[in-house]
Amino acid sequence: MSTETTWEGFTPDITPGHEPFWASVREHRIALQRCDRCGTFRFIPSPLCPRCWSQEATWTPVSGRGEVYTYTVVHRAPTPAYQAMAPYVIAHVTLEEGPRMISQLVDVPPEEVRIGLPVELTYRDVSPELSLYFFTPRRP
After folding, report:
1. Cα distance from N-terminal residue to C-terminal residue, the chain
2. pTM higher than 0.70, yes or no?
3. Which domain holds residue 105?
4. Which end of the chain, N or C, is more open, meaning fewer C-beta atoms within 10 Å of its C-beta?
5. Cβ neighbours for 78, distance < 8 A, ≥ 6 positions apart
6. Which regions of the chain are under pLDDT 50?
7. What does the mean pLDDT of the chain come to?
8. 130 with 86, same domain?
9. Do 58 and 118 reside in the same domain of the chain?
């Protein structure tokens, strides 16, 4: 999705170390750090590889495809902006490349969500400077 929407939910505090990630989201593609020594992808961006402790990494595009590892259905939201969306699904997704990401799962009724559901990233422009990422069921 690329249509700019009115967003009243939380927005990220984009720090310098996370800027390359959010720049890729603004471009409707996703790039994660990949360790130059051992090849491990990492999310959330960090200065050290969690596997080999290397400080060297390259921002590398990933597919955005994966499957639901686990999820929760939120019925009582933390703020009025999110309560209007309830019930909604927050999912941990294991990407094809290995790392897990967390986001809202959209475009599917909560009762149809299951562990192992194939999903892919979708994007929503919430301002000229900010896009957010969500997961949606993968199209066949």
Report:
1. 17
2. yes
3. 63-140
4. C
5. none
6. 1-4
7. 93
8. yes
9. no
